[in-house]
Amino acid sequence: MRARVFVTLKPGVLDPQGRAIASALVHDGFAEVRSARVGKLIEVELDERDAGRARQRLTEMCEKLLANTVIERYDIELG
Is the pTM of this model over 0.85? Predict the structure, then answer.
C-alpha cells in the first residue's frame, strides 16, 4: 500500500524559510503572493493491505520520527 505523509508547521509557528520564499517570489514579479509556508512530503510504500492497520502504523511513524509534534502537524493520505 502506498501512502503520503504531509508534514507542516502548526499555525503560529514561525516559518523563516516560507517567509524567504514569499519575499523572493514577490521580488521576482509575483506581487500577488502574500505568504508561503514550507513543509515536507514523505512517500511510504508499506507491506500492508489493511487500511486501518496501515494508518495506525503510519501514525506511529509520524509520532516517533517523521514529525516533530511539538511544532509540526501531519496528514496521512492512503492510496
Answer: yes
